Amino acid sequence: MAEQEALFEYLLRLGDNALILGHRLSEWCGHAPALEEDLALSNVALDLIGQTQLWLNLAGEVEGKGRDANNLAYLRDARDFRNVLLVEQPNGDFAVTMARQFYFDAWHYLLLRELMNSTDGRVAEIAAKGLKEVTYHLERSREWVVRLGDGTEESHERMQAALDDLWMFTGELFEADEVDQEMVRRGVGPDLGALREPWLGLMRATAEEATLTLPQPGWAQRGGKRGIHSEHLGYILADLQFLQRAYPNATW
Amino acid sequence: MTSILARPDPDRIKSWLEEVPDPEVPAVSVMDLGIVRDVQWDGDELVVAITPTYSGCPATSVIALDIETALRARGIERLRIERRLSPPWTTDWITEGGRRRLEAYGIAPPAENARTPSPFDRFLRSTPLVIACPRCRSENTFRVSEFGSTPCKAQYQCRDCLEPFDYFKCI
Hints:
The complex is a heterodimer.
Chain A: H1 3-26, H2 35-63, H3 69-74, H4 85-88, H5 94-115, H6 121-149, H7 153-166, H8 178-185, H9 196-209, H10 232-246
Helix pairs in contact in A: 1-2, 1-8, 2-6, 5-6, 5-7, 5-9
Chain B: H1 10-17, E1 36-42, E2 45-50, H2 59-73, E3 79-83, H3 96-105, E4 107-108, H4 119-125, E5 141-145, E6 153-158, E7 164-168
Parallel strand pairs in B: 2-3, 4-7
Antiparallel strand pairs in B: 1-2, 5-6, 6-7
């Protein structure tokens, strides 16, 4: 695979993960269980959308066809999105949203920490910026997993169910394909498989503190990185892209 | 050809920018927050480098516009604003004056140095930060939420005077 082509794919994955999770979180705006949580969810969404702009603008630059973050976000169809399946899963109840966030934040944190050492200075810059923000995301989602897990009987049950239901989407985070391997060869990105142990370490420690049971490793649902998505992504895009599809090139 | 008189000294320009308030926390200036990274002449064009506090901070474009407006009012005609991502903004860049003004405004300034250990270590040690109440100085406070009215702040409350307040997070 050509170097630029692989880098473009890689940047799309980084940008699309942030975009789709940011959009999912923004769906909570005005609906969260408490005002503080409404603000927090929107703030995390805002950080992720900010990171999306940085990643997708760079992707467009690397591709060299004149596309920018807006073109890439609004004018691609589901098959061309490269986010992992985890981030497109529906919000569910608050426990599902927080479990999804915790699984993702811990991985995102580890990934960005490695990307700070990327041989590509542009990638390292964005990672350094994002890592500061993601550190707070992780702190918050981890605390919610503990609080709900070690909370009431109902909150415990719901958090346990959320961890169980989303577990099959976590395997994809650590599976490297030829794009990832090419990035490792060029020193652009880390070996994803090597992130699994530290990630699992935090998962185990947190589950124990939260009196929850971490699901056993099992079959992993995969495909998002190659553009094979669950049905949920199409609905997200219908919402996200409506304005640009109905009124092409609209700006304000 | 612009004469040297039409090119004010960068230090003088920085002193003008001390009068440009942050749009979301107007008690402090864009200089106080360390958002302005550099002011330099490139020939007869003034280049002001700014850095976003958070990557999605919606205030960044307003800040650029406010800086431009302020400098044009001072007679700067040729002006370019550059967005600089690296090194990433840190609360360590908030000036002493800025910290005092934040506190007087009711926002607790960042308490810790930004160069904290990995959160993976931090979580497992779980040592809570001590944040003093900007109203009564009591350290008997607690965190209500990790995020406040803007991405750069968390919400706290004082157990002594009961004041709810924002804490400017350390990054």
